[in-house]
Predict the structure.
Amino acid sequence: MSEANRPAPRRSRMGLTAAACAVFVVAMIGAAFAVSPLYSMFCSLTGFGGATRQAEKAPGEVLDREITILFDSNISNDLGWSFRPEQRQMKVKLGEVAEAAFLAENRSDHTTTGLAAFNVMPGEIGVYFNKIACFCFNQQTLKPGEKARWTVQFFVDPAIAKDPEQNNLDAITLSYTFFPAANPDKPVAAAEPATPKRPL
C-alpha cells in the first residue's frame, strides 16, 4: 500500500513513534555530556568511590582519637613531571585541620599543564574526609625545569567516631594522580581557590 493510500491513523502513529525516537536520541546525547560532571558532583557530595568532600571550615570539634594519614602520588607518563608527597604520613586527630605538602617538578623541555585526580582509601571513608583547600581544585602549569610546592588542608570529620563500622580504622590513604589537562587554557571551576604555587 502506498504512503498516500495508508490510513491516516497509522501514519499518525508512525509519526509519533519517529518523534519519540528522536527525542530519546537527543536525551541520550545530552545525558552522555552530562554524566561526567553529574557523577563528579555525586561523588563529591556523597564520598562515593573514595571521592573526598569539600568543606568551607573546620567542624569546630576535635577528638582525642588519632588516625594516620598516608600520602600516595602517581603521575601520567605523558606529563613529564615528578610528583611526590613532602612527607609520607602524619597523625591527625579527628576534627583537627592539618596541612600536607606535595613537591612537583617539570622535567620536560616545554611548559605543561596538569590536573590532579584524587581519592581516599578505604573508599567508604570518602564521606568523612574533607578538604578545605587543595591544589587539585585547579589546573597547575609548570615551565621547563620549574619546581613547586603545593599544599592541601583537610580534616577527618569527627562524626566518624559515631560510625561503629569504623571503630577499628587507624589509617587513611590520600592518593593523587596527575594527568595532562585536556584544555589547559580553560580554567577549571572550583569551590575553593587552589593553594598558591610557591617556588622551591
Notes: The longest strand covers residues 66-75. The domain at 49-180 is CATH 2.60.370.10 (Ctag/Cox11 (Pfam 04442)).
